[in-house]
Design a protein that fits this description.
Radius of gyration: 27 Å
Number of helices: 15
Mean pLDDT: 95
Low-confidence stretches: none
Number of strands: 26
Distance between the termini: 51 Å
Strand content: 15-25%
Helix content: 10-25%
């Protein structure tokens, strides 16, 4: 859509940062030109457990260009080191690929070669690497403010009176993020003031964390990140390399650039953890759920408890009087896991939605009919109404667009030659939430409008959304708007995660723009209309000063008091080769209830991106680990499989576009993650329908279909 005419919220405005990205003028963290910058290369551990006995530099510190070899023996001491970060403050080793030293040199090649010359000798200790053996010592944890365990009713009684049951175990593997942009940080000091260019999802979080670790005021830390080249959760926290870059810069007295190599991203910066999920369903003679029990085990590290909240979707998706969800974490000598697109919910919906498919099959009932029979009009736990829920319409539209009625219910009954055809579906969900956020809108003396917020552009379209909302409120063409973000000097905004950036920052931009519109009307003496005073004339009336307003908005509801969730229905068609078990996803149709759509173009991109990752969850992704030593054996994009264009079918994604003004004034709920949440299950269910073979251990690879 053209940026030269006025727009309304929802219009498919093209990405305002698109030209900068495709022409290469958009600057990412490692691309800033800093005078006197040096380069750093990490040395990573080769054992999963123990301590550093000695470090032999092997002359690395005397090689050409080398400025320093920094180890736990000579690293400066930090004011507030955290146990969860391994930042060269002690000799303990907790996982393979843990940073144990860093080399700083004039060039990247000099730093990398010197790092390869450093030899570390370890005193190894027995490593905890047996996931299932750890179940006996597994313990509860929690996901942010969400309880790890939550139950209501009497599950045992509900199962006892059930006329049919499903009781199965579903597993998902460890999976690693592989954004196009690797983690990267440039750090420089000016006295006690620290400036960082960092690839992050949360500039304010980096600012606060680094201030605490180095014992300086937050006002003395500046973080700049105008673009992040993919994040998906792994750039949501401060990892060790960020601190090490700042430590090295302070120690050598020069700016330091540290860019993680692709293999180095497997270990020190988190991953989606492994899950072992036991799901038990009971239904009465009519097919209505009498009980659900969902027991989750997931791995975490020895230095921090991280919970993959896979039981969460079971608490909100279906009407059932008796539900028990429990989560237990198993401490292993692996790096601390972290958020990965729809953390917990992507893996949890896989388990509960395949279990629902299994129950429908056992009842000889259509899977969609079974879900409608157990539809939750209200939140199953509290009994309170959702802020908005229009899932029935998602089911209806999705089934019609997909052609669900042509499905022969008998598994293995549909084929095209040697190809077995399967149709599967699943329900999708993700919580709707937001956090306090601030934004500035300012009419500049040159007549252009600045909209600014300390949020992040992680590829989801924040520049465009901010521009679209401001232009819509002011009734001007988006070509007159300049958007700024990614700078901690701007009004503070929350982390770009949890599908809440638009629902958080959008209302702040809207409120600031409305205030500016009011000021403009006062100066004009009339309502702003096309052909009235120009912005430049109004600025002159204001004494040549910018006409601006800063607004801070707070969440309108607390999710613990008012249930707020997005929902969707997804349908998948697969073709499975009868002889070789190779699976091709041929079609995906999905319909979402996600509140108001602020930009149809970027929204569609987000839906498609989530669906693609859901296909990858089902068929491709697994981090292979040698469980004897905790070593990752496929830490690169040659052997860590992700989908390519040939793997992705026709994707038809749509949204109902029904505003949810109970959540926020814009009416939008987040959309970045819901697309992945049911896709894995829909594909798995379609494969079962095609083959009659139920694989409960992701990913579903040809060998599993041939051998079942």
């Amino acid at each position: 859509m053209s940026t030269s005419r006025t727009i309304s919220i929802g219009d498919p405005l093209a990405r305002v940062d698109g030209v900068a990205k495709v022409t290469g003028s958009a600057q990412y963290a490692a691309e800033f030109r800093i005078a006197g910058v040096t380069h750093a290369s990490l040395v990573l551990s080769t054992v999963p457990s123990g301590r550093i006995a000695s470090i032999d530099r092997n002359g690395a510190d005397h090689l050409p260009g080398v400025i320093a070899v920094i180890t736990p023996e000579n690293a400066i001491r930090l004011a507030g080191p955290e146990r969860r970060l391994t930042i060269l403050q002690d000799d303990q080793v907790f996982y393979q690929n843990q940073p144990v030293a860093v080399v700083v040199a004039e060039t990247l090649e000099q730093a990398q070669f010197a790092a390869s010359c450093v030899t570390v000798r370890y005193e190894s200790a027995p490593a905890k690497l047996d996931f299932k053996a750890g179940f006996a010592s597994a313990h509860p944890s929690k996901h942010n403010d969400e309880p790890g365990d939550q139950s209501w009713g009497d599950v045992e009684a509900g199962l006892a009176r059930a006329s049919a049951k499903v009781d199965q175990i579903y597993t998902t593997p460890i999976q690693h993020h592989n954004p196009m942009e690797p983690h990267a940080t440039i750090a420089r000091w000016d006295g006690e003031k620290l400036t960082l260019h960092d690839a992050t999802q949360h500039i304010s979080g980096v600012k606060e964390k680094l201030a605490g670790i180095f014992g300086i005021s937050k006002e003395d830390v500046s973080v700049d990140c105008p673009f992040t080249g993919g994040a998906f959760g792994c750039k949501g926290q401060v990892w060790s390399h960020v601190v090490i870059a700042a430590l090295a810069a302070k120690q050598v007295g020069r700016p330091v650039k540290l860019v993680m190599e692709r293999p180095q991203m497997f270990g020190p910066i988190g991953a989606r953890p492994r899950t072992h999920q036991r799901v038990t369903l009971g239904v009465d003679s009519e097919g209505k759920l009498t009980a659900i029990r969902h027991e989750v085990h997931t791995n975490t590290s020895l230095i921090e408890d991280y919970l993959e909240s896979a039981a969460f979707p079971t608490r909100v998706m279906y009407a059932c009087p008796n539900i028990s969800t429990t989560s237990r974490v198993v401490n292993l000598n692996l790096g601390t896991p972290t958020y990965m697109r729809a953390p917990g919910i992507a893996t949890g919906t896989y388990a509960i939605e395949v279990a629902m498919d299994e129950m429908a099959c056992a009842l000889n009932m259509d899977p969609l009919q079974f879900r409608l029979l157990n539809y939750a009009e209200f939140d199953p736990h509290s009994g309170k109404p959702f802020t908005e829920k229009n899932l029935r319409e998602c089911y209806k539209q999705g089934a019609e667009r997909f052609g669900w009625s042509r499905r022969n219910p008998k598994p293995g009954s549909m084929r095209e030659g040697r190809q077995l055809i399967g149709l599967g579906m699943a329900t999708e969900t993700y919580p709707g939430k937001n956090l306090p956020a601030s934004a500035l809108v300012s009419v500049q003396p040159n007549g252009r409008v600045l909209v600014a917020s300390g949020t992040q552009e992680i590829g989801t379209g924040s520049y465009t959304i901010m521009t679209e909302i401001a232009a819509s409120v002011l009734g001007i063409a988006p070509s007159l708007v300049d958007a700024r973000l990614g700078d901690t000097s701007l009004p503070e905004a929350p982390i770009s995660a949890g599908s809440m950036s638009t629902a958080s920052v959008g209302p702040a931009v809207q409120a600031a723009a409305e205030q500016v519109r009011g000021k403009l009307r006062e100066l004009a003496g009339i309502n702003m209309t096309p052909g009235g005073d120009s912005f430049s004339e109004l600025v002159r009336k204001n004494g040549g000063r910018p006409i601006e307003a800063t607004a801070k908005t707070e969440p309108q509801i607390k999710s613990i008091d008012v249930p707020c969730h997005s929902f969707g229905a997804i349908f998948a068609e697969v073709a499975v080769d009868e002889d070789f078990g190779t699976t091709r996803v041929r079609r995906i149709v999905a319909v979402y209830d996600v509140g108001r759509i602020v930009n149809r173009r970027t929204a569609n991109s987000q839906f498609i991106g989530g669906i693609v990752w859901g296909i990858s969850l089902a068929l491709h992704e697994v981090t292979d680990i040698d469980w004897r030593y905790g070593r990752i054996t496929n830490p690169d994009l040659a052997s860590y499989l992700v989908p390519v264009n040939a793997d992705i079918p026709s994707i038809d994604a749509a949204a109902l576009d029904i505003p949810d003004y109970k959540l926020d004034s814009v009416g939008a709920r987040g959309i970045g993650e819901i697309g992945i949440t049911g896709t894995g299950a829909a594909v798995a269910n379609a494969i079962f329908h095609a083959t009659g073979k139920r694989v409960r251990d992701l990913p579903i690879t040809p060998d599993k279909l041939v051998s079942v």
